[in-house]
């Protein structure tokens, strides 16, 4: 196949061998969210570029170099494939005035797009489940989000390999004070900064703390801590979140270097991380973003939320052997002969009317080869029709997994008997 006809690099097909795991994950997530009263939001995959610049921040990795942005030839508008879901969700909440009668608990899922270097757990089209609680200011909501995620890890069978790191970014004043100290600190160590950090020094020094460059770790570890700048309100909020986690028996580590790659966060930030995925160790990340609704033009409203990377969780589940077995049909419908082929379509529908999951053999082939396929399908029953059966409206049937002789009966009687067994 020529390169130009292949899928775009970093954008994956989800094949039948994997879609069972996806389906299992999605069903678990839907039940889990219902249990906490969250309602689904579906927003467009394309938004005006300005939305992401405004929400995520101009001087972030995502906006600087990861967005798929293009000009719509038809009207000259700059559009962007969404790199994350919070901006779109908040945009829709403001546009449709969803907070008019108080707080809202919302969730979404779907593909996100970032132009990154593809590797295991990092793709250019990837999928997230995101959860946003809008209109709630108090720390109980931060705690609820964390209890929720802890429960999901249990339900997915991953609780033992995912752990929680949290931090507080404080309010705007604390970040401003910390920013000055950081700039002074990094200026004093200018020679040790990599190119990215040099560039960020005056525009977004906080982001230097999020560097993935091992050569900068020691420098970053010794940098002034935002924790030291927190005012009483931020400190109390953070303490209440920690207390809530302790009350619930959820282990956590305070990581003063945790800053997140998006500008909209304040107060609580957190990441759920694993050692099982190499450098792509964050499976879920979020926190508070009390300023974002106002920043996007809405009536000020506090908010918090998180997003998890579905592919990373699925890799963990697959590697831990947690993928569900492919379900077998109840019936494999063997049909040999031309009249039998037509009759088989009716027999299959009648069986489905009675509640059976039916895999009808298609495409001809000998009786023997069809019986082999029936066996391989894992079906509990083989229902067999030839031209003889077709002529008189009967079927032959036999259980595949126990030694019982084949029987032949009129279709309705056969179905009644099969349902009984
Ligand atoms: P990272 O530090 O790994 O680049 P991030 O801080 O950019 O992650 P967020 O924007 O917080 O990630 O997105 C939330 C989650 O979405 C991440 O924790 C991760 O699980 C997942 N994610 C982010 N980018 C990708 C990607 N390119 N491919 C697959 N999953 C991703
Ligand atoms: Mg990233």
Question: What is the percentage of strand-forming residues?
Answer: 15-25%
CATH class of the largest domain: Alpha Beta
CATH architecture of the largest domain: 2-Layer Sandwich
Segments where pLDDT lies below 50 for 5+ residues? none
Number of domains: 2
User: What's the arrangement of strands in the largest beta sheet?
Assistant: 1-5-6-11-10-9-7-8
Quick take:
This protein has 421 residues and is of the alpha+beta class.
Record keyword descriptors for this entry.
8-stranded mixed sheet; binds adenosine-5'-triphosphate; 21% strand; elongated; 2 domains; binds magnesium ion; Rossmann fold; 421 residues; 38% helix; BirA Bifunctional Protein, domain 2; 15 helices; alpha+beta
Topology:
Elements: H1 16-34, E1 39-40, E2 46-48, H2 49-56, H3 61-66, E3 69-71, E4 78-81, H4 86-95, E5 104-113, E6 125-134, H5 139-156, E7 163-168, H6 172-188, H7 195-200, H8 217-221, H9 232-247, E8 252-254, E9 266-273, E10 282-288, H10 292-295, E11 303-309, H11 310-319, E12 331-336, H12 338-353, E13 358-360, H13 367-377, E14 381-386, H14 387-392, E15 394-399, E16 407-410, H15 411-420
Parallel strand pairs: 1-5, 7-8, 12-13, 12-14
Antiparallel strand pairs: 2-4, 3-4, 5-6, 6-11, 7-9, 9-10, 10-11, 14-15, 15-16
Helix pairs in contact: 1-5, 5-9
The structure holds adenosine-5'-triphosphate (ATP) and magnesium ion.
Kindly describe this structure.
By secondary structure, the chain is of the alpha+beta class. It has 15 helices and 16 strands. The chain has an eight-stranded mixed β-sheet with strand order 1-5-6-11-10-9-7-8. A five-stranded mixed β-sheet has the order 13-12-14-15-16, with helices on both faces. Helix 1 (16-34) packs antiparallel against helix 5 and helix 5 runs parallel beside helix 9 (232-247). The longest helix has 19 residues, at 16-34. The mean pLDDT is 95. Bound molecules: adenosine-5'-triphosphate (ATP) and magnesium ion. Residues 84, 114, 116, 121-123, 126, 128, 261, 280, 282-285, 307-309, 311-312 line the site of adenosine-5'-triphosphate. Adenosine-5'-triphosphate binds at residues 84, 114, 116, 121-123, 126, 128, 261, 280, 282-285, 307-309, 311-312.
